[in-house]
Write a structure and sequence with these properties.
The protein is of the alpha/beta class and about 250 residues long. It has a single domain, classed as Aldolase class I (TIM Barrel). The protein is about 40% helix and about 15% strand. The protein has ten helices and eight strands. Helix 2 links the parallel strand 2 and strand 3. The chain is globular, with a radius of gyration of 17 Å. The protein binds phosphoenolpyruvate. Phosphoenolpyruvate (PEP) binds next to strand 8.
């Protein structure tokens, strides 16, 4: 297993947060200053501009939760990767299971968006993960490997790609796979990245996501092959995010 230099903790605020929550963004940025891990926060699109301003000069990077594949045009309600970069975003989450379910996004769509993110200079956090039925049916590795193959375009590198393994059944449920199950999937994803992208894959971080919280973060970060976490609910409160960051700093 290739050791990564630093873990990455990425917060996904989903459809939560208003202007009043910029105080929480600043508190997360303050926690990130002292952390040995890298930190990214992905607020809703409505807060990206303000969040970038509030965190300028800090170690906290701001990201988005989705982008369109095109640069501009007749796509009502959509936001391009270039628009996000224009605001100062550095990352974009793509292919989150909530978007795959709510918006019918396929891995093909995700790959097109990943190319757009790359074009705009954003790092794409590409999510893969099995459903509860797929895990019960014993197809977890086949499912995530296929998602990885079809969601990540050629030319992936650490500069443009991060991968998040997020079992769908673990998101927001309080349920987490065993450490052995996480290790098994991460090893398979790492092997798939290496065989496809060779040495370019070395620095691509492989995050775990799904009900990460302060009480289980230390254990999850001790698993071989886990380079950080994508955190939903527990990223909303700066105190929880800070505790997860500090758990990642100690591993
Ligand atoms: C997520 O939304 O990516 C996520 C992992 O959510 P939670 O941490 O709330 O399970």
């Amino acid at each position: 297993m290739i050791p990564m230099s630093k873990k990455l903790i990425a917060g996904n605020w989903k459809m939560n947060g208003t202007l009043a929550d910029l105080l929480e963004v600043s508190a997360i940025a303050a926690a990130a200053e002292d952390a040995k891990a890298d930190a990214v926060l992905c607020p809703p699109a409505t807060l990206i501009d303000r969040a970038v301003s509030a965190t300028r000069g800090t170690r906290l990077r701001i990201g988005a939760q989705d982008c369109h594949a095109n640069t501009s045009g007749a796509h009502t309600g959509d936001i391009s990767a270039e628009m996000l970069a224009d605001l100062g975003a550095a990352y974009v989450i793509l292919g989150h299971s909530e978007r795959r379910v709510d918006h019918g996004e396929t891995s093909r769509t995700v790959a097109a968006k990943a190319l757009a993110a790359r074009r705009a200079g954003l790092n794409a956090i590409i999510c893969v993960g099995e459903t509860e039925g797929e895990r019960a049916g014993g197809t977890t590795l086949a499912v995530v490997e296929e998602q990885l193959r079809t969601s990540i375009p050629e030319g992936a590198s650490a500069a443009n790609t991060t991968v998040a393994y997020e079992p769908v059944w673990a998101i927001g449920s309080g349920r987490v796979p065993t450490n052995e199950e996480i290790a098994e999937v991460h090893a398979a994803l790492r092997a798939a990245l290496s065989s496809r992208f060779g040495s370019e894959a070395t620095g691509i971080r492989l995050l775990y996501g799904g009900s990460v919280k302060p009480s289980n973060a230390g254990s999850i970060f001790s698993i071989a092959g886990v380079d950080g976490a994508l955190v939903g609910g527990a990223s909303l409160k700066a105190s929880d995010f800070a505790a997860i960051l500090s758990a990642a700093s100690g591993t």
